[in-house]
Write a structure and sequence with these properties.
Oligomer: single chain
Distance between the termini: 73 Å
Mean pLDDT: 77
Radius of gyration: 32 Å
Strand content: 15-25%
Helix content: 40-55%
Length: 298
């Protein structure tokens, strides 16, 4: 199937080249070999010839680009991109034809450049979002359905903190958004957050952000304070057995002593689970530790 598509593309390119050569030979013959066309009208013939060549190239480019983009986005999303490229291509066609007709296009190009600068400055954010959408479509750092965390450094700040409840280590993430990618348009990337809210992030922000893909689960960490008279050796095996027996455990476990006080030590547990909700699994770990440790304190 792939070889057939490549063959069709090569055939189309070969046909285009053959057509251009034929047109060039035809124009050369009627203009110079057999001067059928009067010299005063030769520029019109050249303009028509250039228009046909540029038009064919433009249609081929749009066709190939359209087939490529249709594999990665819906027609509704690809249409704005194709429209912008078409306008640019037809502008080039018009300039080329006017140049062949002897019209001075330098002022047109200069005026167009000034207008483009004005429009570009006025719509900088919009264009940045659209070019960001094109880049995300081509590079594809994530796809619809992926679980990601987009660290939008342009907003807010991150503050690490220790929560008082059993010293469980968490992090207040105020610089980004985590959740499932549910849509990617020309202007916005849409996430369904873990809270259930929907957030639309401008693509110009997304392409400048650090993107964390969460695949296959997460590592859950918990900290628990234990009296020193309950020794590490006496509970290590039982703690491991209780954690690895939890639902969705994914064959990765570690445990060590992190800190000590006058009468207690802090036990750190890390385990991987096939889930995207670490808070729930951390709660299960804490309950398992409470059931094991608390009766030993009495």
């Amino acid at each position: 199937m792939a070889d057939g598509k490549k063959g069709n593309i090569v055939g189309a390119i070969a046909a285009m080249i053959a057509l251009m050569i034929s047109l060039f030979v035809f124009v050369y013959i009627i203009t110079f070999v057999f001067p059928i066309i009067p010299p005063d009208f030769s520029r019109y013939v050249n303009a028509i010839f250039v228009a046909i060549i540029v038009y064919i190239i433009l249609k081929v480019v749009l066709s190939v680009l359209g087939k490529y983009m249709s594999r990665y986005m819906s027609p509704a999303r690809a249409h704005p991109i194709m429209f912008i490229i078409s306008i640019f291509g037809y502008f080039i066609l018009g300039v080329a034809v006017m140049a062949q007709l002897g019209i001075d296009v330098s002022s047109l190009i200069l005026g167009g450049s000034i207008v483009s600068v004005i429009i570009g400055l006025a719509s900088q954010s919009v264009l940045a979002n659209q070019f960001g959408g094109i880049l995300l479509t081509i590079v594809r750092p994530f796809k619809i359905g992926d679980q990601v965390f987009i660290n939008t450094w342009q907003y807010g700040g991150a503050f690490p903190t220790l929560f008082p409840k059993f010293f469980s280590t968490d992090r207040i993430e105020a610089t980004g958004y985590g959740g499932e990618v549910i849509a990617l348009t020309i202007n916005y990337t849409t996430l369904k957050l873990n809270s259930g809210d929907i957030v639309r992030i401008p693509n110009a922000i997304v392409i400048q952000s650090a993107i964390v893909q969460r695949k296959g689960g997460v590592i859950v960490q918990a900290r628990y304070e234990i009296p020193k008279y309950i020794t590490y050796a006496s509970i290590a095996k039982e703690v491991e057995q209780r954690v690895v027996s939890l639902k969705d455990y994914d064959n990765e476990f570690s445990m060590y002593v992190d800190e000590t006080t006058m009468n207690t030590y802090i036990l750190i547990l890390k385990a991987r689970f096939k889930t995207m909700e670490p808070e729930h699994k951390r709660g299960e770990i804490m309950l398992a530790l409470m059931e094991l440790i608390e009766p030993m304190k009495s």
